[in-house]
């Protein structure tokens, strides 16, 4: 870690402490006022809809982006338009490059992600990580909808942390919210949500890689369900996987 990274990490820790004492609107307003380009990346899940609602309601100067992977549910795509209309916001779509998709298909097959973890990580790299890099270009702060209650792998999620790989501060303003608080906010404020949530999909990604969960399963059990690793992620929020995928 460089001296600059060390300083940035200390500043992120100080920001983490400040955010802990604020409500969601206060957290987002504080971050929006820090200067530089602030980007919120939404997957249109219920948590992200809460953040989009607050950005729209309070007219905060935060760019909103989504990764339109080419394999999303139709319900997710429709929700993008509905959210933009309800809050008078613009959600910028970032799509994978055709050349990358063609190269992936030539090597693994279009649905090769079912065959190995390597192939699945490579697909996430093409459809999510590379578009994310474009979405975050020039950003100083990256806002996400990560929550500690989503999975064991996310149980220690801070409010703010320094992302040394992307050289920016990552802010997770819903880190301490549980799913009941999320649902209550949605209900009280008329926030539009993906109808798939009501059909047993608490966590929604690409259609081929997402299933409804069974009673008693963790929220993210329906993501890449054919893999055995209970800490499975796509690489967006796990530095080790992000570096491996980016190098492919």
TrEMBL record:
Q: What is the stated purpose of this protein?
A: Catalyzes the formation of sulfite from adenosine 5'-phosphosulfate (APS) using thioredoxin as an electron donor.
> Residues in domain Phosphoadenosine phosphosulphate reductase?
38-212
Give me the gene this protein comes from.
Answer: cysH
InterPro entries linked: APS_reductase, PAPS/APS_Rdtase, PAPS_reduct_dom, Rossmann-like_a/b/a_fold
Cofactor comment text = Binds 1 [4Fe-4S] cluster per subunit.
**Residues the entry annotates as binding [4Fe-4S] cluster:** 123-124, 206, 209
Its GO CC terms? cytoplasm
Q: Which organism is it from?
A: Rhizobium phaseoli
Q: Which GO terms describe its molecular function?
A: 4 iron, 4 sulfur cluster binding; adenylyl-sulfate reductase (thioredoxin) activity; metal ion binding; phosphoadenylyl-sulfate reductase (thioredoxin) activity
Q: Which Pfam families match?
A: PAPS_reduct
> Which BP terms does GO give this entry?
cysteine biosynthetic process; hydrogen sulfide biosynthetic process; sulfate assimilation, phosphoadenylyl sulfate reduction by phosphoadenylyl-sulfate reductase (thioredoxin)
Q: Which residues form a coiled coil?
A: none
Q: Which cofactor does it need?
A: [4Fe-4S] cluster
The protein here is known as Adenosine 5'-phosphosulfate reductase
CDD domains documented for this protein: PAPS_reductase
What metabolic or biological pathway is this protein involved in? Sulfur metabolism; hydrogen sulfide biosynthesis; sulfite from sulfate
From the Swiss-Prot or TrEMBL record, state where the protein is found.
Cytoplasm
Catalytic residues?
Answer: 234
Q: Which HAMAP family match?
A: CysH
Q: Which family does it belong to?
A: Belongs to the PAPS reductase family. CysH subfamily.
The highest taxon in the source lineage is Bacteria
- Kindly state which reaction or reactions the protein catalyses: [thioredoxin]-disulfide + sulfite + AMP + 2 H(+) = adenosine 5'-phosphosulfate + [thioredoxin]-dithiol
Alphabetized UniProt keyword annotations = Cytoplasm, Iron, Iron-sulfur, Metal-binding, Oxidoreductase
